[in-house]
Structures are given as C-alpha cells and as structure tokens.
Amino acid sequence: MSNRHPQAAHLRGVRAFSRNTQRRRRPPLSGQTPAGIAWASISADDSVQQVLHNTLRSACGVIGARGGFVVQLRDDTVLEIACAHALNGEAVLDAVFGRASRALHRALLDAERGLACPRGELLAEPLQAAPAVISLPLELGVRRQGAFCLLRDNADRKLSALDFEILDALADQAALALAAACQRSALSQLEASLNATPPTN
Q1: Which residues on neighbouring strands pair with residue 133, listed in sequence order?
Q2: What is the pTM of this model?
C-alpha cells in the first residue's frame, strides 16, 4: 500500500505547531486543554464518530494496542483530537506531548509512517520491530493533515507486512470519514453565508 499525505468540545486557543520543532514539554494537568490543542468539532457528527471508533477499535484488536486516537493538523496551527478509543483525555495529551510526539511529527509533517519505542524514540521501519507507538499519516486534502495513532503497552510481538496492510486500510477508512466531515462542514458554512446575503434587485 502507498503512503498517505487528515468527545467534541469548543476550541480552547491557538498557537503555532511549528514544522521545524516538536513539542516536548508535558501539558499542564489542570484539566484544561493546552493552547494549540482542540477537541475537534468538525468530526462531532455521530456517523463520523462511529466510523472513527470502529476503525480504532479494529486496529487495536489487530495489533494488541491498548488504545488509540485520530488527530488532524489544521492550517499548521491547531492540532485537533478527532476521536479517542480506550483512552481518556489526559492519556491522549500525555501521548501527544510525550512518547507519541516524534511518531506523530513524522506522520503529520512528513506524511510518513512513524514507529516509536516505549521511550518515544523513532524506530527504523525496515527492522519490522515491535513498536509501542504506531502513527499512520491520513490524506485529508490539500490543507489538512491527519494521523491515526495507536499505543501498545505490551510491544513484544513484531508487526508483519500484513499487520501494516490492515492498519493502512483502517486508516484509509478514518481518512475518508474525516474528509467527508470536512466537506459537509464547508458546505454548511457556504450555505449559511449564502442565506445571510440579502437578495439584490
């Protein structure tokens, strides 16, 4: 398969997520989402959430992951957490800023598969090692990138080419659901702006 190049709450701030740097600091654990991170409202649609949950659950079952999440990088400024499976919000943020950060960076900004060991260091993919973090890039369109990220606590089993084929197929399903949600949102915004424009005589 070829490499790919994409519960809801309101935005809580914006800060640049630079293409040249990685966020290595841990977020504050005060219960608030850090600036630059948002729970995506675009994917709050029930049908989209159902697809994302099903694909994450299936992917976790295939490789024995304890949980996973889907993120979108919007205009290089806000990382939106579209969906999480078997992980609470704090666990997702810990992964984003911790052991999954390098793998996510590779998937989101380089559009390449990111595999990392339990400490978060990237693994050389040809080794077919037993990664603790798997981050797959999602094609969401020209202006959006996304990643399908899975976390494994027991990473003893090496992953095979078949494992990655299945994961790629599941990630493709997630990308299609997110892309459809983005299109519906854009159409709704266009309809709202057209309805707000007074007719001219």
Answers
A1: 116, 151
A2: 0.76
